[in-house]
Every structure is written in structure tokens, then in C-alpha cells.
Write a structure and sequence with these properties.
With 235 residues, the chain is an alpha+beta fold. Helix content is 31%, strand content 20%. The structure holds zinc ion.
Length: 235
């Protein structure tokens, strides 16, 4: 699949990455998420919430001398809990209110949910409760893979051993890995997407690839191959 990129050439000042002739070149390992955040703001701006169209504050506002608060956040259209990848195609600027109330909903579910905003009559309250119950069931079926949870066109089938991982761990597997392992045991599927570059380098999904390595050694699994991204960060 193709990553959505700004339609002009540029290089980040700190040299993390460069866009040239419709290709993204990544120069620093481990910087993929940061690059996705920056690109999303470049493509979609920082000024308006994707969901409620409210204008967003972009300057940092000082609160109680120490903490900083900004109204702009990035929302995953397909929620991360259902394997929504952190790539520009799946990220949109959103106000923190929309982002937190959307939670694990898909955009169309969130639209439906918003209809209950401000309604306090009894009938609406009952309807809202029914909506939430139905949503919970749907989400559970999604976790079991009984209904599709991701945008199928984004995925290709690939063998894990064909992916280059250019870093390795020196510590015992962490909390994130344990969490993903639990998910795998419960639902018999990989919880997060593996994202790789055109030249087959791992960009995102390190824990998932470990989990996959132990469980799908010779089987093809669904991963995202970004055909217009090239990884240059190898030694
Ligand atoms: Zn909003």
C-alpha cells in the first residue's frame, strides 16, 4: 500500500527523514512514529478537529506553572486496540474531547454515538444504553476476528523471516510484550500491525514480530508494506 505523503519535496531539519519524488526516505532507526505524527500535521494541518470541526489551539498554554496543555491530539481512525496502525492514512488531528470520547469506536460508530450528545430525555438515555451494549458485543467479536476490524486493502501476506529487524533487545521482554501475549492467548490473533518499508525493514510492531516469530514461523501473516517508504537507517 502507499503511505499518504505531502505532495512536495522536503527534508526535516533534524535529518530524520526526507520526502523526494513521492518517496519517504527514513534515515534514523526508531523514529517511525515521530515521523508519522509530523507528516500527519503537515498533511492535515493542526487547526481543525477532524470530527467536530472546531478550531484548535496550536500554541501551548501554560497551566499551573509546570504542565503544558494543547488541544490538538492525533486520533487513530481505526482504533489501535483493533490493530489500527500509526500511519498517516489512519491518523487525523482531533481535539482532545473528541479523541477521548471516541475511544475505541470507529468513525461511523462515533458519528452515531454523537447523536446522543446533550439529550437527557428518558427515551434517548435508553437508546444510548442499547447502543453501548451493542457496541460492546461488536467489539468483542472484532477482537475474536469474527468481523473485520481493519482496512483489508492495507494488508499483504508476508513471511516473518523475510523482514529485516535492524535492532535487537538486550532486556527481558517488557510489559507491552506481556500484554500482547495475553491478547494472543485470548483471541488467537496478533493484536498489532507489523509495518515494514519497501526494502523490507521493520518500521513498527517489534513486540508483534516477536510474538509472530514464536507462533507463525512458517506461516504468512498479514502485514502492512509501505511501497513508497525506504529505510536508510542501517549501519
Ligand atoms: Zn473535536
Amino acid at each position: 500500500m502507499k503511505l499518504i505523503l505531502p505532495d512536495y519535496d522536503f527534508k526535516f531539519d533534524d535529518g530524520l527523514a526526507e520526502v523526494k519524488d513521492g518517496m519517504l526516505y527514513i534515515y534514523k532507526p526508531g523514529s517511525f512514529k515521530e515521523i508519522m505524527y509530523r507528516l500527519t500535521y503537515m498533511i492535515y494541518g493542526k487547526n481543525e478537529c477532524y470530527f467536530c470541526h472546531r478550531k484548535l489551539r496550536t500554541n501551548m498554554l501554560e497551566l499551573d506553572n509546570s504542565k503544558y496543555f494543547s488541544q490538538v491530539t492525533l486520533d487513530h481512525l481505526v482504533p489501535q486496540d483493533f490493530g489500527g496502525p500509526t500511519i498517516t492514512n489512519n491518523l487525523r488531528p482531533a481535539c482532545s474531547d473528541c479523541n477521548s470520547s471516541k475511544g475505541n469506536m470507529y468513525p461511523d460508530e462515533f458519528e452515531e454515538y454523537k447523536k446522543f450528545d446533550g439529550k437527557k430525555d428518558k427515551a434517548s438515555k435508553i437508546e444510548k444504553k442499547q447502543f453501548k451494549n451493542a457496541l460492546r458485543l461488536k467489539q468483542e467479536r472484532r477482537r475474536f476476528g469474527e468481523i473485520e476490524s481493519v482496512n483489508e486493502e492495507w494488508y499483504s501476506d508476508e513471511l516473518i523471516r523475510n523482514i529485516y529487524v535492524n535492532f535487537w533487545i538486550t532486556e527481558p521482554l517488557g510489559v507491552m510484550y506481556k500484554k500482547q501475549e495475553r491478547y494472543f492467548k485470548n483471541y488467537k490473533r496478533l493484536p498489532k500491525p507489523i509495518v515494514i518499508s519497501q526494502n523490507r525493514f521493520l518500521l513498527d510492531g517489534f513486540n508483534t514480530i516477536l510474538l509472530g516469530k514464536y507462533n507463525f514461523e512458517d506461516k504468512k501473516i498479514k502485514i502492512i508494506i509501505l511501497e513508497n517508504v525506504y529505510f536508510m537507517g542501517f549501519p
